[in-house]
Amino acid sequence: MFKTISRHGLAALFATLLLAGNLTAQQTTSATPFSGRPAPWTRLATETPSTQALVDRTSATAYPMAPQPKAVNGYTFPGFVAPLRTGIGNGDGSETFGGVLSADIDGKNGIDVVTIQGDGILTVDLNDGKGNLSQASLNTSGSGANIVQAFVQDLNGDGLPDIVATSNTLPGYFVWMNQGNGVFGTVTKVAITAPTGITVRPIMGAMTVGDVNGDGKADLVLPISYISGSGSVGYTTTMVLYSYTGNGDGTFAAVPKSTLYTIPGYYIFQGGRSIALSDLSHHGALDAVLEMYQPPPGVTNYFFDIATVKGNGDGTFGPLVFAAKSIASTQYGRGSLLVRDFNNDGNPDVLFADAYTTVDICYGVGDGTLQPAVSAIANVGVSSLTAGDFNKDGVLDIITFRGGAAQVYLGTGSGSFKQTPTAQYAGSQGGNQVESAVDFDSDGNLDFFWVDPFYNSINIFLGKGDGTFRGAPAIAPANTTATLPNNTQSAFGFQVLAVGDYNGDGSTDIFAEESGYVDIGLSDRKGGFVFTRSLDSQNLTSVDFVEPLHVDLNGDGKDDIVMATLTGVRVFLSKGDGTLSTPVNTTIPISLGCTLNLASAGDLNGDGFADLVIAYGGNASCYATGTTPSGFAVLLGNGKGGFTSSLFTAFGGDLYQASLADINKDGKLDLVLNDLASGKNVITVIPGNGDGTFNTTAAHVVWTGIYRVSDVQIADTNGDGSLDLMMAYAGQSIASTTAPSGVLNLLGNGDFTFKSPVYALQGVAGQTAVLSDVNGDGLPDYIIPLSTQTTLISGVTVLINAGGGAFNAPILYTQPLDVLFDRDKLIFAGDFNGDGAQDIILGGGAGLVPSMLFLNNAGLSLTLGATSTSVVQGTPVNLFVEPNLLSTGNLSGTVTFASNGASIGTASWNSNVALLSTSSLPLGANKITATFPGDGTHAAASAAPITVTITAPPAAFSLTGAVQSVSVTQGSSASVALTLQANAGFAGPVTFACTNLPAGATCTFDSQTLTLAAGASAATKVTIATTGSASLQTLGPLSIGTGVSLAGLFALLLPTGRSRKKLYSLMMLLVTLAGAASLSGCGGSGNSGTPTGTALVTITATGVSGTTQVVNSILVAVTVANR
């Protein structure tokens, strides 16, 4: 599982093993920068077992199958990003489909698919509502027909679509009526009768369905050609438009409405879309648009005309009006008409493919005629089209199809299209398919599908709603530069020759041929490649091919390029920017009459530098002159890109493949040789001496067979610590015994001996293969492109390792069609988008198909973010992680967050989002990272770090009181506990004061001033004291006792006979004393003390931090009561 397995050890083991396969690059132009001599594996593509001399028959045995997995569901592999694939039932193997139809056949679960093979066998595949198809029925009642074109339409008004098709065998049309539940009834066949006076055989092709007589019932319209004359006297075509008007019950009128046109020349109508119906003239009747081909016998340069005929509303049509004449076309077999309003002017327009490289458009005028054709899209590989709003912007877009690739072009709404494809996808195509844009999984996004006629499979590309689809990308430049190479180019021109990390960033890059150039495509870590033209033709003089090696010859962490030349090898060191250094040539000390064969790289002498071993089949292997024998060359690296020595050792009869691996576990690389000696294939292991030489006298023959082993892969497939050999075996069939083709596994014993071979997969044939751990369980899985049509196991086939030498059932992916004809494709493994999972690239071969990329659904990248990246200390920081998934579904497990390397917490996935809130980040810059260890179906991943800066808050402190109110009686006091709390920005002294005290009250503090440190707290206490009401207690020496009033004193001083003068003096003294007594009271009149009631006392704390003064205060309600 991805959660626990590290890939590094396994990747290191694979690094020295050969990734074998095709090198010959297909291009839209045939220019090649190489010598033109065949690459090693092209010879195997043309051989068959019958061409081999059968000798040593005793070695021919039928091998047993590998053990079955102990637990069929004991592994998890989420698969590659690819279309949904469904196999199609039996047919005649003609590799053609006359009808590929989509409709809701059973009235349940959305759009289904019906296919009609060229032999007339009809297959219904029903949808589960998610785009997964399963075969519901197989109808053979039309068997033997040559089906050219088919349409799906409800012919009897029961709400279920029926099928009508044309047959060249009859000639005429076939009808299958829908019986419900995905079943069609027995076919009804109707022959067509030629018009009076015409005796030549009709040529059928196109057809369409529509209501051409306005009665609300579906009619059948057939354009048929009757051609007379010859090449010497000229041809004349009588074209008849037959309108079989519908009866509404699944039958059509016995006598059709016929419109005849006599045209000089040779004109026919192909299958696909060569006729379309639309009301071009806005007169309430359907007109017809015709794509008329001119392919006279013996002529290879084809042309076609675009014409219109105005519908009369009764099933007949008006005169023929040509809109475009003699358009060049290299295609033959299908029409491409698409009639829609592309410029939103209310008039239908006509879009069509022109000569494989251009899409043309004739804009509708609105009167039934069309404007002259203009280019809509240039420099595009195209043979057919479909239209739809693929990015949901309300504008029609198109997808162009050509054998091996589909390209998406977004519309502008004005009738033009963006000249850069939004996406390009690899696939397969053939027959008279009419591609349709439909929604298979009911998610509101348009999807499209292809039927592969060679591998008999339906492939649904689910739309994402943004103009892209779930499919295997066809490899093309991601460059947005104005100069080539750039993203305006079609994928057909790029063929991957080798892969490696050419800039040292950890992602796997590609080396590709492009129409006479060679490029390095650096991974953009999104599944695309930024191309640089790395070499000119001068540097490629006398080069035969590129060795498909992962090798760093100068130890700079960047893989380099090794090319086989007429005399040896040429090394180009990677500069890291997509360019290569001046080449270093090394000559092998023999006369090379043939192309060198496959090589391997590794450190043979323990000096830390990569060395090379290259197989050579001998001059006799290609019938060259000279006596140079079969053998292998050893080139010892100098760590600078060159070699210190080159030694050739004669060995074997026709060495094809050399691979390096430590077979006996002694720390020295041994040599595994695949020898294609005439009539006897031999696999030999030669012990390495550890000094750059091999002990040929101790060579171990580990397998022999009559016919070819086209590829040997080396890894520990059963987990016992010993290396095993997995071989792509072509099988043999002789009188005494038969050994089927398939994949053989020789389990190693760790001592140059191997157990008897077993089949990991039987009955299939493939040229090249690769071992790679695609599901992250630590066991190498086996991936091979199979070119066998006779079984249901075909296309890119993945065998997931189940352990113990067992492999799970094959998982199949569609690959481009011409693998059968050019079975020389390279296959590569690597992490091409930098998401931690192993992906696969399949080279394009020598035919007209692109290279393709299978991205691993297990791959995962993470996006880390924060609601704010600059936060005041103490404020929560909300961190989140979102995955960038290639697959659907939810992740499980937890994400670990760290700041400056220290963990700050974990978060579980919730609907594919992991959230963490923290307030613990320290002041300053915090480098935040997030890592996910992987789960059962997804690889481990780390997000690109982000920086969250924590800033100190403005200088501040807080002042709080333990209580907000106190109650006292006059003359008493109360205390309030005070607390100061500084934030991180404040440090310094704080001084306290009181204001708004009631009369006669005072306040004191336990500490009048406190000094605070940043972020610290401190406490003090304030005491508020009041005074009570007061009376006169003393007056100098005169004591005024309790209960004696001044009035009494006055009474005592009434006249008693003393002198009046003395009495007057005493009275004045008492008055003075009375005044003094009145002045000794506290507040207010009457000497009553602190007044009763409630006063709001303000307690203030004033502090200074640097130059900043901070003042805080609180209110305390002081309630004073009488004593």
Structural write-up:
This protein has four helices and 84 strands. It has 1123 residues and is mainly β. Among the domains are: 861-951, Immunoglobulins (Immunoglobulin-like); 957-1025 and 1091-1121, Sandwich (Immunoglobulin-like), CATH 2.60.40.2310. The longest helix is centred in the C-terminal third of the chain and has 20 residues, at 1060-1079.
Summarize the structure.
The chain has 1123 residues and is mostly beta strands. It contains four helices and 84 strands.
CATH topology name of the domain at 957-1025 and 1091-1121: Immunoglobulin-like
Q: Count the helices. How many?
A: 4
- Could you tell me the strand content as a percent range? 35-45%
N- to C-terminal distance = 84 Å
Helix share bin: under 10%
In terms of per-residue confidence, which ranges show pLDDT below 50 for 5 or more consecutive residues?
A: 1-30, 48-61, 819-823, 1031-1066, 1069-1085
Examine the secondary-structure arrangement and name the CATH architecture of the domain at 957-1025 and 1091-1121. Answer: Sandwich
CATH class of the domain at 957-1025 and 1091-1121: Mainly Beta
Shape: globular
Average pLDDT over all residues: 86
Structural class: mainly beta
Largest sheet, described in full? 6 strands, mixed
Radius of gyration: 45 Å
Please count the beta strands (DSSP E, at least 2 residues each). Answer: 84
